[in-house]
Amino acid sequence: MTENVFKFQPRTNSASDSGSGEDADVQEADFMTPLVVQTDFGCTSPQPKTPKSPSKGGTLKKRHRAPPGSAKPEETRVLHTHGRRTLYTAGRPPWYNQEGQLKNAFVIGLCGGSASGKTTVARKITEALDVPWVSLVSMDSFYKVLSPEQHDKAIMNEYNFDHPDAFDFDLVISTIRRLKEGKSVNVPIYNFATHAREKTMKTVYGANVVIFEGIMAFTNAELVSLMDMKVFVDTDSDVRLARRLRRDIAERGRELQGVLKQYMKFVKPSFEHYIEPSMRCADIIVPRGGENDVAINLIVLHVHNQLQARGFKLRSKQAQSSHNGQPMPGTLRVVEKTSQVCGIHSFIRDKATSRDEFIFYSKRLMRLLFEFALSMLPFKNVTVDTPQGIPYTGKHLAVDKIAGVSILRAGETMEQALCEVCKDVSVGKILIQTNLQTGEPELHYTRLPKDIKDHYIFLLDATVATGAAAMMAIRVLLDHDVPEEKIFLCSLLMAESGVHTVAYAFPKVNIVTTAVDKEVDADFHILPGLGNFGDRYFGT
Ligand SMILES: Nc1ncnc2c1ncn2[C@@H]1O[C@H](COP(=O)(O)OP(=O)(O)O)[C@@H](O)[C@H]1O
Ligand SMILES: Nc1ccn([C@@H]2O[C@H](COP(=O)(O)O)[C@@H](O)[C@H]2O)c(=O)n1
């Protein structure tokens, strides 16, 4: 696999940006880290002498501030490509099957005492796995928000961060469950210096492998049941204390006395009470943490075996699959082939048409396409008064929110026409590119309105050949909880195979186009088609 980190700069000068800037949730392909695996049993730890739960309040007034710049929020812990290994690819390959259904991620749970080397082991597993898409989620992200009194205690090293009550397990479980289902999640970013969550969240997409690490990873039965593999990092307590001292002073803005006080009062008892007993849940125990290459290689071998059965080669399957003779699906709606529509097609399909004319006629066709698609939305009856004072009974759209989501780059050419026929439309973008080595589509970038699930979506792509990119874009929308029947795939020209592929996977998605051509050639070009729409439109 080549090292191939893609940096995409969203265009800021396009007409579409006007409607999407503020409310957009910008997410670049999140090249991740952790993995969490499943299992079938939960475990609870025995309940001898219970260490103190996090304080419920306090009266301390004095605030100790961490030195500025002494600690960084967790989002700065980014994994990078090491040596020959590519940890992250340029984009996310398909995470669903031909039926459009999600395949479950393999979830690895990593537990161990503080500073035992959980994060280090997670990185080593990720590196050695060498699979395209691995997400790392840390339990630190799920520390509960502190009250002012609790915060004061934390500053005095009097708050117990090493008790299960310190974590929002409901949020942990729902997050890992969504990731396992291949869906995206917003994960809080935790700052150890301020003992608080950052204002922003980090969006993490579902992955082939999810690694979840944390000191209490194995203390909740429901959470454990989501893990496909459970790994306990077992490092000597002296080593853990030494590492924690160094790390907390260097990276978390702490002082020696405070670290020792917290360790003796909370960290050590909690390890003995909650963490060490939870080792019995583990499938694999890794003594000495990240140094233990043998154990890490065994884990990687097992995960590879598990992933083997989950591999997909979608594009080629789609190209091969024959729908010849199959009737067109009921969800397909084609703009009536009037002389006017036929006339426009005659211009845009003609290889002799100049670029200016190509753009002019394409835009006309786009407007017709969107007017047609709009007519498919729900309408309600209304009566209005004409200037002559006579009532007119007509219709209004019975839809609050419409968003256009363009599949870059050709789909972006359609945004302006959509904005011209549809007032107050929000616009989002999804960048999907074909990996030339694998032939598979890869997701590089999404920028979607935040409340996307509440919108009717016009998904824009100028042409649809195999349907692979459209399918990936639809999957992204579904992962953002957009109901399938509220998606309208709008394209100027589609191939029969693309129509069938999309309709087969997503039978409720509305497919709207101005023409359907019969064939796709070996290079995935529509025949007779109109050539490469993007090249002709952009003059490239
Ligand atoms: N094998 C190792 N040798 C030396 N230092 C290590 C080793 N493993 C981890 N560390 C250091 O110990 C600290 C804690 O490691 P980390 O992997 O973050 O542990 P955890 O995630 O369990 O808290 C970090 O500063 C890390 O660099
Ligand atoms: N505000 C906080 C929150 C947590 N801690 C300590 O972090 C430890 C867990 O993180 P690891 O990376 O070491 O697993 C835990 O032992 C808490 O005591 C903190 O000091 N301040």
UniProtKB/TrEMBL annotation:
Keyword Isomerase attached: no
GO BP annotations listed: pyrimidine-containing compound salvage
Compositional bias per record (Low complexity), positions renumbered to this chain: 44-58
Keywords associated with the record: ATP-binding, Cytoplasm, Kinase, Nucleotide-binding, Nucleus, Phosphoprotein, Transferase, Ubl conjugation
InterPro entries named among the record's database cross-references: P-loop_NTPase, PRK/URK, PRTase-like, PRTase_dom, Uridine_kinase-like
Cell location: Cytoplasm; Nucleus
EC number: 2.7.1.48
Segments forming domain Phosphoribulokinase/uridine kinase: 107-295
Catalyzed reactions: uridine + ATP = UMP + ADP + H(+); cytidine + ATP = CMP + ADP + H(+)
Spans annotated as Disordered: 1-81
Taxonomy, superkingdom: Eukaryota
Principal subcellular localisation of the protein: cytoplasm
Lipid metabolism recorded as keyword: no
Role according to the record: May contribute to UTP accumulation needed for blast transformation and proliferation.
Family recorded in the similarity comment: Belongs to the uridine kinase family.
Subunit structure: Interacts with RNF19B.
Full protein name: Uridine kinase
